[in-house]
Design goal:
alpha/beta; 7-stranded parallel beta sheet; 8 helices; 34 strands
């Protein structure tokens, strides 16, 4: 039997996701119409013999998370539990801390997936590849190709082209190491806990030797990437499975729109029922668009490509929306134009207003380009990126909001450009 673990992190993370992460834990942020981690869970449930999915993080168990767990268990007919860490333990510390829960029922292997990635999740292929290796104590990481410049922002894998063994692993190197990068999706056997345990014991020894640690360091805080993979590389234990499918990180709100596009484009294969169709008396749909059944869209609106409309959203006459996510309860009044933006929960955009951002998409001419996790500021100025309206923001009629971030519960009275409105 198999299990899966999704690492969802916690509230102090997701800072680049503000102001959206104020309202909902980042893993529940809707991408292509469903919570981000639902894509992970769905992929796990398609693997035969999957018995349980565990979410590990240090969010306080809140209503939104509990509601999501109940509905996901009903939909996918599989036990899904949330295990809360008492502190941020890192990607390896969390699974080590809850190793008894993971090993309960004696699974032969388990997947570990980072919540903030979007992917085709080739879990079945990883499993077959692992079985073909014929080494029960080997571990597998999913890799993909990046371009030389961007590879420095990721974990870089040097692998033997014949055997696929990982010979060398460096997290965010300072000079070029390899174009094969770590996707944050792994297949482990229970033997991994021996290697994490070694790091734990080493951390404990080091803490004992250092008298003046102020008590803030913890031996349990272990990073899979730097602490475990770096040591395992070259020992005949760690292997890389390379995917040709899509993969992207979801670090900033801008990358959520890109991830939404990737998922929407694969819905035509896996979830055609989620894509809106052009129908007589309905809005004009261009490209891939998701519209929640409980949204109300005027027939004269034009939506798409890459648009996701949440529950209870109202879209008036003559509205144009492109490359955007409109979250539940928002209202776009007649003739508004929304491009490259995320409109927060229960926000209102007045008539003839224009809300526009600048996409931060990867270079379309480079097949291996990834999205840059852009910094908010460059040379003391706000980098032009997508426009984000937090929840309950009111935009008056006939104004233009360009490349700006508006924090929740703001009522604007004029146009803004390249600003963070606090």
């Amino acid at each position: 039997m198999l299990k899966a673990v999704v690492l969802i992190g916690g509230p102090q993370k997701g800072t680049r996701f503000r102001p959206l992460s104020f309202e909902v834990p980042k893993p529940l942020f809707p991408v292509a119409g469903v919570p981000m981690i639902q894509h992970h869970i769905e992929a796990c449930t398609k693997v035969p013999n999957m018995k349980e999915i565990l979410l590990i993080g240090f969010y306080q168990p809140n209503e939104a998370l509990s509601r999501f767990l109940v509905s996901a268990q009903q939909e996918f007919k599989i036990p899904i539990r949330y295990l809360q860490e008492y502190a941020a333990l890192g990607t390896g510390g969390g699974i080590y801390h809850f190793r008894d829960q993971i090993l309960l029922g004696n699974p032969e292997a388990f997947f570990v997936l980072n919540a903030d990635v979007c992917s085709e999740f080739p879990l079945g292929e990883m499993l077959s590849f692992h079985r073909r290796l014929g080494n029960p104590d080997s571990f597998l990481m999913l890799g993909t190709t990046a371009n030389r410049k961007q590879s420095l922002n990721y974990g870089c894998i040097v692998a033997n082209t014949e055997t696929h063994e990982v010979l060398h692993y460096v997290e965010k190197p300072s000079t070029f190491v390899s174009e094969l990068i770590n996707c944050g999706i792994y297949l482990f056997t229970p033997a991994i806990f021996h290697h994490i345990g070694t790091v734990f014991q080493r951390n404990q020894q080091e803490l004992l030797l250092e008298e003046n640690t102020n008590g803030w360091q913890r031996a349990e805080a272990i990073r899979l990437e730097q602490d475990v993979f770096t040591a395992l590389a070259g020992q005949g234990r760690l292997f890389a499975y390379k995917t040709e499918g899509f993969w992207s990180q979801i670090k900033s709100a801008g990358s959520a729109i890109y991830a939404s596009r990737l998922y929407l484009s694969c819905y035509s294969q896996c979830h055609p029922e989620r894509l809106a169709q052009n129908q007589p008396g309905g809005p004009t749909i261009r490209g891939n668009v998701y519209i929640h059944p409980a949204a109300s869209v005027d027939a004269s609106a034009v939506l798409g490509p890459n648009v996701s409309i949440g529950k209870g959203v109202t879209i008036g006459a003559g509205v144009r929306v492109r490359e955007s996510i409109i979250l539940h309860g928002a209202s776009l009044q007649d003739h508004t134009c929304v491009l490259n933006s995320i409109v927060g929960w229960d926000s209102t955009i007045g008539r003839w207003a224009r809300v526009e951002g600048t996409p931060s998409d990867p270079n379309p001419n480079d097949p291996y380009a990834k999205i840059d996790s852009e910094t908010l500021f460059r040379d003391g100025r706000l980098t032009p990126s997508i426009t984000i309206l937090g929840c309950n923001v009111t935009i008056p009629a006939e104004v233009v909001i360009l490349n700006s971030i508006v924090l929740p519960h703001k009522e604007l009275s004029r146009s803004f450009k390249n600003q963070i409105i606090l």
